[in-house]
Amino acid sequence: MANIKVLHNKLLTLLKELDTICSAHDIKYSLFAGTVIGAIRHKGFIPWDDDADIVFERGEYDKFLKVIPANFKISSNNLWVTRFVSKDDENICIDIFVFDNISNSKVLQKLQVFGLKAIQGTLKGQVTKDKGIFGFVFTSILYVIGRLFSKDFKLKMYYKLATLYKNKDTDYLFSSLDKFVYIGKILPKTIVNTYSKVNFEGTPLMILDGYDFYLKEFYGDYMKLPPVEDQKPEHGNLKYVNE
């Protein structure tokens, strides 16, 4: 994996560019998912990780969209996660996640998450076959329904449902653009009260001060290394760099 270092350098350059934009406009963001685990556990990238992730609160993300320089853009992948890319190399990207408000009611939380998971199912290009018979039937139905609507329409419905409580004063938030397994994890809004800069590959980048609660909720003991057989790239991004 010699060329993973090349990929890490390219991703770090892009992270620095994003940080510069956010710092210039007083926009809060945080390293996220495996990237924030890397920041805490490795002081940089997880050695075998082949992508970079950040998260904005919805209001901060809306501000960010208005100030992106002309040589960068937000692109959409095949599903519902957006990406920050340089127009000079659109294969190298940062995945962007968003924290949205969610109701204080557990019943309404479950209904909103269920709706988003259902739309995720309609956006996928294939049926899930490893979730048992119920999962297979459910995703098959969603797949068929999804063929009836355009991707743009489904993404608009996803956005409307994700931002249902955008202008409401709630005590909780959730990662509305996340994977099926994480989207239902509800977090107290206190985790985004404050942010700090940490050393990431020798560069100060921003993380939310409530990272420990978030990481334990999503990943459990995040300081423990996974088994050796799982220490491998999983996003397929190494094909975009040369040795």
Architecture overview:
By secondary structure, this protein is α+β, with helices and mostly antiparallel strands. 39% of the residues lie in helices and 20% in strands. Strands 1, 2, 3, 4, 5, 6 and 7 form a seven-stranded mixed beta sheet that branches. A hairpin with a 2-residue loop joins β4 and β5.
Set down the secondary structure blueprint.
Elements: H1 3-24, E1 30-31, H2 33-41, E2 53-57, H3 58-67, E3 72-76, E4 82-86, E5 89-102, H4 106-123, H5 132-146, H6 151-162, E6 172-175, E7 187-188, E8 195-200, E9 203-208, H7 211-219
Parallel strand pairs: 2-5
Antiparallel strand pairs: 1-2, 3-4, 4-5, 5-6, 6-7, 8-9
Name the poorly predicted regions.
none
Number of helices: 7
* First and last CA, distance: 9 Å
Instruction: Summarize model confidence as the mean pLDDT.
Output: 90
How many runs of DSSP E, i.e. beta strands?
9
**Sheet having the most strands:** 7 strands, mixed
Order of helices and strands: HEHEHEEEHHHEEEEH
Structural class: alpha+beta
Which band does the percent of strand residues land in?
A: 15-25%
User: Into which percent range does the helicity of residues fall?
Assistant: 25-40%
Indicate the radius of gyration in whole angstroms.
18 Å
Instruction: Give the overall shape.
Output: globular
